[in-house]
């Protein structure tokens, strides 16, 4: 670090805590994965920094190398989960032959992700109360990607030409609710079937008009 | 009251606190309306019973006539808001000439309700952390009504015959996200336009196949 740090408040939040070594990046990931479990199981108020470092198997000092507070790691965690989800879904979506198939693959991989990371709902949803800006940013960036995909599909003539922002928010909401109902609440639902039914609604709803 | 009461815990929660007079029902509604403002502005943890009674203009004793705790009025409030929303939307939906028009009118009236009751998102969403059973019940009852409507429309031949549970969850999610984006976050969006675009997606997505 080149500059003196106060260790408190926004000034501290601005110091560059990005790890510079592979070992540092591994520790940071361990802390974030542990934070996902700690916040997911206990919720923001009951979660503790010592609970996170214990789960991560790191010293308390490592925590403070990267974060100044529970609030700060929570904020980083929302972004981390949002990026994990994006990195899980994006390559699958990009392999699809067209936009409708991409939305189906996207929903199916999202439902699979929810089954594997059930804590995602609790963490993203708690951000509404702990850090509203992170909550809103998660949805705005997710929907912006979806909208780009729709508009690219429309430009290629695969779906209706007017597909845009309202459609993207509608599809995002559809996916989040189907994930809650069939990914989070219901262990036994056939998620392929859910994705097929929902995608059939979209395939017709977004069909090109000539 | 006929039975001795402990005033604590589940036993107390079981005593019948339904008001028997019109005046009692008015007081109860005043308390619930005040609770919506108090919880909506301050969130569950910072909200207080005295804050609720102050806003309601009632004595503290009136609160304890109907509720034993902050948790109990919060739980009642989630149900109250869920019912208010239902009572706002249902008559509008019932006047629609067919199922697609009903969904459009339903979404439009929901978007209008959100504009008038912005606190609904914060309260329902906070139930996920304060009282999960209420949170889940709100969505399950809302979606069950939607599903009934879809199945009745399918039976009348107005929409595809296989419209059912997955479609109902998809539409509910769509509406909740459109309400957040265009009702809650954006004061200036033309909600008629939003409802028209979303309904056009549904009209085609749910079209009858012969």
TrEMBL record, chains A, B:
HTH tetR-type domain: residues covered: 25-85
Keyword DNA-binding: yes
Superkingdom per UniProt: Bacteria
InterPro entries registered for this protein in UniProt: Homeodomain-like_sf (IPR009057), HTH-type_Tx_Regulator (IPR050624), HTH_TetR (IPR001647), Tet_transcr_reg_TetR-rel_C_sf (IPR036271)
Annotated signal sequence range: none
Region (Disordered): 1-24
Residue ranges the UniProt entry marks as DNA-binding: 48-67
Compositionally skewed regions (Basic and acidic residues) per UniProt: 13-24
Keywords from the UniProt entry: DNA-binding
Keyword DNA-binding set for record: yes
PANTHER family: ACREF/ENVCD OPERON REPRESSOR-RELATED, ACREF_ENVCD OPERON REPRESSOR-RELATED
Name the UniProt record assigns to this protein: TetR/AcrR family transcriptional regulator
């Amino acid at each position: 670090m080149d500059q003196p740090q106060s260790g408190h408040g926004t000034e501290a939040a601005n110091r560059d805590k990005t790890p510079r070594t592979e070992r540092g990046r591994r520790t940071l990931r361990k802390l974030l994965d542990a934070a996902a479990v700690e916040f997911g199981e206990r919720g923001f108020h009951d979660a503790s920094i010592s609970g996170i470092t214990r789960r991560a198997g790191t010293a308390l000092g490592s925590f403070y190398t990267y974060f100044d507070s529970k609030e700060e790691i929570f904020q980083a965690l929302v972004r981390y989960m949002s990026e994990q989800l994006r990195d899980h879904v994006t390559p699958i979506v990009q392999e699809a032959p067209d936009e409708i198939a991409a939305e189906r693959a996207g929903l199916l991989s999202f439902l699979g992700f929810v089954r594997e990371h059930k804590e995602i709902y609790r963490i993203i949803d708690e951000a509404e109360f702990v850090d509203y800006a992170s909550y809103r940013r998660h949805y705005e960036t997710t929907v912006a990607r979806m909208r780009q995909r729709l508009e690219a599909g429309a430009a290629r003539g695969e779906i209706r030409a007017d597909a845009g922002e309202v459609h993207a928010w509608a599809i995002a909401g559809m996916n989040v609710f189907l994930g809650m109902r069939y990914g989070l609440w219901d262990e036994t639902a056939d998620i392929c079937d859910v994705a097929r039914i929902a995608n059939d609604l979209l395939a017709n709803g977004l069909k090109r008009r000539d």
